[in-house]
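Holo prediction. Input below; ligand is flavin-adenine dinucleotide.
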Amino acid sequence: MAVNYDFIVIGGGSSGSALASNLATKGPTLLIERGANHTAYPQSSVRQGWPQITAIAWDHIQNRGSGHWTGTANILGGGSALNGAVCWRGERSIFESLGFELASVESAFEMLEDRLCTANDDADTEYMNAFRSAWEEHGYEPIDSAPGLSSWVENVTSVTTIQRARTLLPITGTRQPASDLFEDDLLRNDGNLTVFLLTKAKRVLFNDNKVAIGVEINSPSGDASIYIRNGGKVFLNTGAYETPKLLMLSGIGPDNTLAKYGIPKVYGNNAVGQNLIDRKEASIGIPTLKSLEGSDIGVLDYAAISNDYWASIAHTHAFAWGNVIQGCGVCDVKHRTPACIEQMLGALLFYGMGRDSNIAFYYVAQRRPLTRGNVTLASADFRDPPIVHDGWSMEYEELTASNKHDLDVFVDAVQDLVVDFLRNTTLIERLGQSSGSTNEGPFLGELTEAYFDARMAIAGLDDELDQCTFLDYFKIADTFCTNWDECTPSIPSFPRNDRRKVRDIVFKTLASSQHMAGTCKAGAVVDKGTLSVMGVQGLYIGDLSVVTEPVDTHPMMTAMALGLLLGESTDRVPSADFEATPVIMALLGIATVAGLFFLWACTWIRQSIISQPFRHEDMEHVEPQSFFDIFAQNGSQQRKVDGAIELGNVGTELTPQPADNSDGAGIDVSSQQDTSMPGGKRPRLMKWSNVSCVYHTKTPGKSKKSITTLFNNSGCMREGEVTAIMGPSGAAKSTLLDILAGRKSVGAISGTFSVLGRSFSMSGRGRDGLDDLGNSIQGVSAYIPQQEYFYPTQTCGEVIRFTANMKFGKANQKEERTILVRACLDAVGLESEAYASRKIGGELAGGVMVRGLSGGERKRLALASVLALKPKMLFIDELTSGLDSENAFVTMKLLKDLSVKMHVATLIIIHQPSPDTFALFDSLILLSKGRCLFSDSCSNLATFYRSNYDESIPTNTILADDLIVKASAYESFDDNAMRMTVDPSITEDFIEAEEGGLSSITSLIVDGNDSLNFTSISRAFFKLFVIFHRNLVNQYIRNITNVGARLASYSGLSLIIGAVFWKVGITDSDRGLTFEESNIVLRTNLYLMNVSYLLPFSTIPVFFADKKFLAAESALGLYPTWMYGMSQVFLEFLFLTLMSTIEAAIVIPMCGLYNPTMPAAVNFLTTAAILIVSGLVGSTMVFCCSIWLPTQDLAFLTGSTVVTISLSLSGGFLPFTEMPDLPHTFQWISPIKYSFQAMTIAQLKGTSAEKVIDLAGYDTPASISDNMWILYGIFFALSFLTALGMARVKEVR
Ligand SMILES: Cc1cc2nc3c(=O)[nH]c(=O)nc-3n(C[C@H](O)[C@H](O)[C@H](O)COP(=O)(O)OP(=O)(O)OC[C@H]3O[C@@H](n4cnc5c(N)ncnc54)[C@H](O)[C@@H]3O)c2cc1C
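Structure of the complex:
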């Protein structure tokens, strides 16, 4: 039932039928008519049947003022199906006052005359001739009125004319009511017109924006609501009584009326129902004692028209009908009770008419009355007729000035057109009576019999009817008229010389003309020109209610013309044009996916087929070079520039130190002395003194607590030396290492530092100086964490190359990179030809294990990768843990050799070094519960033992263990009692104390920025590209299990949805889904939103693995973390676009999510675009949570809470119009709302179910594009947040 139309016309009467037939040429139109089809009544088409059809298809109403009977048609065709069928054009002034172009008005009239109104071009009959001749005698001038009323006839000078109208009911043939226009060739409506008969409109429906959206109806099958499409229109054409009533029932009307009946106000307008024009007529019978030929022909079509009034004649059928309908003329006005009228109508219906009568029906009407009445509601029940007050009264004394003016006009009219007319013309003789004073007494004899005949023809002898008697009229005659000279021979008879008596008789004789109009006046209720109802949108009035002034003579054609003109001026409802934005977005998405695939394919082909990086052959191809040679070249170049010092150890061959080089304690000290340096000591690259670290903690309910973990530590790192940090667990080894490496992220740090000649001092408050220290250190150092992180799918060569790329940029050519890779691997003992292309292995994000390097090999690779950075300082957190003692020694030996040869100052945490390993250390920092027991060259350990413990230094084999035992046993932290040995030179001023001076130190810094010749912007791009490429290769090309699993879950789920919601969107109608069908599609859309927003949760572990990797890698300081964040967000964007495109490709055809009003390709692209952007938002939400939240559980909890809330506010479960205020307010924060809305609009826009969008409030915003822009906005905001979150990721140490 609830199907969308472009236009709904309520009321299929004269104007409504014309309007509907025109609108149907522009789009699907519904005409709602409360009555039955006029063709169901044979009386409606035959000439003599029209009184009966009027009696049948008539809804009566009694005027409260005058008591006159009136009413509205209740049949398809309205008044045109039951009226007198006279076609007069309305005056120009009527249309001018409504704002219509006269040219189009004239065409409308011509069209109506051509289609419906037959011209009366038969020869005049004797009956008509009698009247016409009499009018001519009386001074009226016949004119050719074929084009209609005189106002449309050029060159008419006389104001008293005789005109002849056209008719809907030709003498031969059948009636052509307005509804015949439906069949008209010119108005071919292509099946667009639907007519609901016996259906009553209850009220017009509006949305919150006061836009008309449909109509509530009551039909034989019950109540229902029918809607128009967006941009469609509703028209009220229910006549001057019903139209204001419907407006009021719809909430538009006087405030007090709406309040009285509890009708929700849409727009208050006191003018609704005012200005009722119920033009009056007086029916007068003229006795025809002579039988006139052709008395049945002239049907209200002959008229004598003067300036203020007119008169017309009718055939015999019309007389009886006129007496009944036109005010129950045979009754005194006081007896015009409903029962009386109904019985008369019943009698009329039963007996029928068509008998000969001896009375010529003649009626007189005023043209431009001043009296105005009003229409108001009788109740809020649509079934109750409105209360009509015509502005008149039953008592003369109560008449208003306007009434009296109108009554005067009537008296003039009767005087002119009846009294004087009968006296001064020969009409009375022509009708069979003799004129002159010889006629004695009141009207008795033949005339009286004629009266009674007429009465008997229409009336039974019921009591009720007895009250409606001619006696009053006879009484008048008895009382006032004794002869022809005194009284006019008419019914009622009028005294000739007493105007006051004439006025009284006229007043009693007046009746409604049934030409009501003006109750929704243009300029007060509707806008002039458009006829659009004020205060609302999409609602128009097209019937006689809108006229401002009385329509002259018969108004039916004016009503029809209004319908046509309104239809003509109504634009087509724009078809649901598809929106370009989603289509462009989808194309861009698909192009991106194609690009991704291309990139993927190219990389795969390059790596798998053309040149796998660092293949065996590549390695063989390059000349093997010693890493130290490469380093020495760079170093000596630098030194040449600075020319300050020479490094004697450069190029020295690495050999384990012979045992005989040890001192008495067996410690190898050969490498601890650099004889080339003045004073025999190597330069210190870094030193620190009084370094402390305090944690401030606060437990609930307790006061703030400070825990000092590191106390006043001092020490230094010398070039070419390895310094070990040792101590039992909890000794703060890592704390010290992290502070010195510039990686400490928590705790208040204090102390003074000197790094390559730059001094830093920290007070322990905030992070003052800490970041500067970190930046200075990280620029020249490298850090190897305890747990090294590599992409398991990366090869060893790639790891080194990546580090080199990050450090040195693009300047070095491929071959140089290969040489470097080879040298680095060889330097750490990983044979480059075998290892360069070997995968590192480990657990992939997603859980799959990849075979690869052993623990020792990984440690070496970690070392090799930092070698590529050519650091001056190396910080290592437990390089040997997890290795057997042999492996540990070999690794440490390697480190020692590298340190010496590269002049690197190495600081390493070590737990339990073997004696051989311990022997490799140049210096030692021994910590115990944060205190420093020893911080000096290992050669001073003997002194340490002697002076602090009064012991000789233990043998080499137990020295390391004994030191740990000493540190573990050390309980007292009384500074005075503490036994501590610290290199005394540390406290000296760095620059002055340092042999060689600052310049010689800084000259050793190998800084890519200086040695390479390219700008920081291009380096940033290069770095970004390298990171992007590495992540693309490792996460999306080599981690095929993860990619495959994600692809499989998206496509699998899409297939399941397709199977479950199989073809739900397919409908036979080319106007799309019905309301009921659309319900299921909405559910499908909602389910799809679940996929877009919930499926990404499966990737949380992947995001966390990523975060962990980034945290570890960011510690190396190779690149700014935002670069990683950006590349990851972009990679996800590409991948998700691919996923969503696949989802769209499966789901749309399987579920049949087609909107038939859009081209199929556009439909697909639009839906795909929405799914893509929804997938992006859903996934980025999860991504963002994963990056910002510390644990997976929390990310799951937060993400799922956000999505659940978002789903509940999406409008999919509960339409927005049904939502309570609070959630309704929060709907805007739900991204799923926009996704769901966009999908719903895409599916339903322009279809029969389009109104669902409006009714459920899925129109904020109303276009797909706007919803998508918001989603893209959310996506970019979330992406930015995610990248920001990634930029902040670092290891908490
Ligand atoms: C007896 C009689 C004789 C007349 N003779 C002539 C004549 O000879 N020449 C002339 O020019 N004029 C004549 N008129 C006047 C002319 O018929 C009307 O002025 C004209 O029909 C008005 O057109 P309309 O479209 O405004 O209203 P109508 O033609 O009355 O149309 C209103 C339509 O709305 C329908 N309707 C009302 N309420 C609802 C609802 N809630 N839901 C659905 N449908 C509804 C009605 O059933 C009706 O079909 C005569 C009128 C009458 C009553």
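Residues 622 and 819 are 6 Å apart (CA to CA). That is the main takeaway for now.
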